[in-house]
Amino acid sequence: MKYCSISEASDKFNIPESTLRFYEKKGLLPLIERDKAGRRLFSEDQMALLETVICLKNTHMPISDIKQYIDWIVEGDNTTHLRLEMMKNHKQAVLAEISLMTESIKGIDLKITRYTKSTQESKE
Predict the structure, then answer these.
(1) Which own/partner pairs from 43-46 qualify as long-range (CB within 8 Å, at least 24 positions apart)?
(2) Each residue of 76-105: pLDDT tens digit?
(3) How far, in Å, CA of 124 to CA of 105, rounded?
(4) What is the mean pLDDT of the chain?
(5) Under a CB-based contact definition with an 8 Å cutoff, are residues 46 and 29 in contact?
(6) Which residues 6+ apart lie within 8 Å of 9 measured at CB?
(7) Are 13 and 50 spatial neighbours (Cβ–Cβ below 8 Å)?
(8) Cβ contacts of residue 71 below 8 Å, gap of 6+?
(9) Distances in whole angstroms, Cα of residue 78 to Cα of each of 53, 72, 74, 88
(10) For residues 41 and 33, is the Cβ–Cβ distance under 8 A?
Protein backbone atom coordinates (compact mmCIF):
# COMPACT_ATOMS: atom_id res chain seq x y z
CA MET A 1 0.00 0.00 0.00
CA LYS A 2 1.22 3.50 -0.86
CA TYR A 3 1.47 6.08 1.92
CA CYS A 4 1.78 9.86 1.91
CA SER A 5 3.49 12.00 4.49
CA ILE A 6 1.65 14.87 6.12
CA SER A 7 3.47 17.32 3.85
CA GLU A 8 2.44 15.37 0.76
CA ALA A 9 -1.18 15.27 1.94
CA SER A 10 -0.99 18.98 2.72
CA ASP A 11 0.36 19.73 -0.76
CA LYS A 12 -2.16 17.50 -2.53
CA PHE A 13 -5.15 19.22 -0.94
CA ASN A 14 -3.54 22.65 -0.61
CA ILE A 15 -4.24 22.91 3.10
CA PRO A 16 -1.81 23.58 5.95
CA GLU A 17 -0.30 20.69 7.88
CA SER A 18 -1.74 22.28 11.02
CA THR A 19 -5.23 21.75 9.58
CA LEU A 20 -4.50 18.06 9.11
CA ARG A 21 -3.30 17.81 12.70
CA PHE A 22 -6.45 19.63 13.84
CA TYR A 23 -8.67 17.25 11.86
CA GLU A 24 -6.92 14.27 13.42
CA LYS A 25 -7.23 15.76 16.91
CA LYS A 26 -10.98 16.31 16.36
CA GLY A 27 -11.41 12.67 15.31
CA LEU A 28 -12.04 13.37 11.63
CA LEU A 29 -9.10 11.23 10.53
CA PRO A 30 -9.27 8.09 12.65
CA LEU A 31 -6.79 5.28 12.41
CA ILE A 32 -3.92 7.37 11.05
CA GLU A 33 -0.85 5.19 11.03
CA ARG A 34 2.57 6.41 12.10
CA ASP A 35 6.06 5.44 11.13
CA LYS A 36 8.75 4.42 13.63
CA ALA A 37 9.59 8.08 14.23
CA GLY A 38 5.95 8.89 15.02
CA ARG A 39 5.26 10.76 11.78
CA ARG A 40 1.76 10.50 10.35
CA LEU A 41 1.29 8.22 7.35
CA PHE A 42 -1.75 8.73 5.13
CA SER A 43 -2.86 5.58 3.32
CA GLU A 44 -4.92 5.71 0.13
CA ASP A 45 -8.03 5.12 2.28
CA GLN A 46 -7.05 7.96 4.59
CA MET A 47 -6.48 10.26 1.62
CA ALA A 48 -9.96 9.41 0.29
CA LEU A 49 -11.44 10.06 3.72
CA LEU A 50 -9.54 13.35 3.95
CA GLU A 51 -10.94 14.37 0.57
CA THR A 52 -14.45 13.73 1.92
CA VAL A 53 -13.74 15.74 5.08
CA ILE A 54 -12.48 18.66 2.99
CA CYS A 55 -15.54 18.47 0.72
CA LEU A 56 -17.88 18.56 3.71
CA LYS A 57 -15.91 21.36 5.36
CA ASN A 58 -15.90 23.37 2.11
CA THR A 59 -19.69 23.08 2.01
CA HIS A 60 -19.89 24.45 5.56
CA MET A 61 -20.84 21.26 7.38
CA PRO A 62 -20.04 21.78 11.07
CA ILE A 63 -17.09 19.84 12.48
CA SER A 64 -19.41 18.05 14.91
CA ASP A 65 -21.53 16.74 12.02
CA ILE A 66 -18.44 15.69 10.06
CA LYS A 67 -17.27 13.85 13.18
CA GLN A 68 -20.61 12.05 13.41
CA TYR A 69 -20.37 11.09 9.75
CA ILE A 70 -16.84 9.75 10.20
CA ASP A 71 -17.92 7.82 13.29
CA TRP A 72 -20.68 6.20 11.24
CA ILE A 73 -18.17 5.25 8.52
CA VAL A 74 -15.99 3.57 11.15
CA GLU A 75 -19.03 1.72 12.55
CA GLY A 76 -19.61 0.11 9.18
CA ASP A 77 -22.36 -0.74 6.76
CA ASN A 78 -25.10 -0.83 9.38
CA THR A 79 -24.96 3.01 9.40
CA THR A 80 -25.35 3.48 5.64
CA HIS A 81 -28.95 4.66 6.00
CA LEU A 82 -27.86 7.28 8.57
CA ARG A 83 -25.09 8.53 6.30
CA LEU A 84 -27.47 8.68 3.34
CA GLU A 85 -29.96 10.75 5.31
CA MET A 86 -27.20 13.06 6.54
CA MET A 87 -25.92 13.61 3.00
CA LYS A 88 -29.43 14.30 1.67
CA ASN A 89 -30.03 16.86 4.43
CA HIS A 90 -26.62 18.45 3.90
CA LYS A 91 -27.21 18.72 0.17
CA GLN A 92 -30.46 20.58 0.83
CA ALA A 93 -28.66 22.95 3.21
CA VAL A 94 -25.94 23.59 0.62
CA LEU A 95 -28.52 24.25 -2.10
CA ALA A 96 -30.32 26.71 0.19
CA GLU A 97 -27.03 28.50 0.88
CA ILE A 98 -26.24 28.66 -2.84
CA SER A 99 -29.69 30.12 -3.47
CA LEU A 100 -29.17 32.74 -0.77
CA MET A 101 -25.74 33.63 -2.15
CA THR A 102 -27.14 33.89 -5.68
CA GLU A 103 -29.80 36.31 -4.49
CA SER A 104 -27.30 38.28 -2.40
CA ILE A 105 -24.89 38.73 -5.28
CA LYS A 106 -27.55 40.80 -7.02
CA GLY A 107 -27.22 43.43 -4.29
CA ILE A 108 -23.46 43.43 -4.69
CA ASP A 109 -23.82 43.86 -8.45
CA LEU A 110 -26.10 46.87 -7.90
CA LYS A 111 -23.44 48.48 -5.71
CA ILE A 112 -20.72 47.78 -8.27
CA THR A 113 -22.86 49.32 -11.01
CA ARG A 114 -23.61 52.37 -8.88
CA TYR A 115 -19.97 52.90 -7.87
CA THR A 116 -18.70 52.32 -11.39
CA LYS A 117 -21.14 54.89 -12.75
CA SER A 118 -20.26 57.32 -9.94
CA THR A 119 -16.50 57.05 -10.54
CA GLN A 120 -16.92 57.45 -14.30
CA GLU A 121 -19.03 60.58 -13.82
CA SER A 122 -16.48 62.10 -11.44
CA LYS A 123 -13.73 61.64 -14.04
CA GLU A 124 -15.70 63.61 -16.64
Answers:
(1) 43/1, 43/2, 43/3, 44/1, 44/2
(2) 999 999 999 999 999 999 999 999 999 999
(3) 29
(4) 95
(5) yes
(6) 20, 42, 47, 50
(7) yes
(8) 27
(9) 21, 9, 10, 18
(10) yes
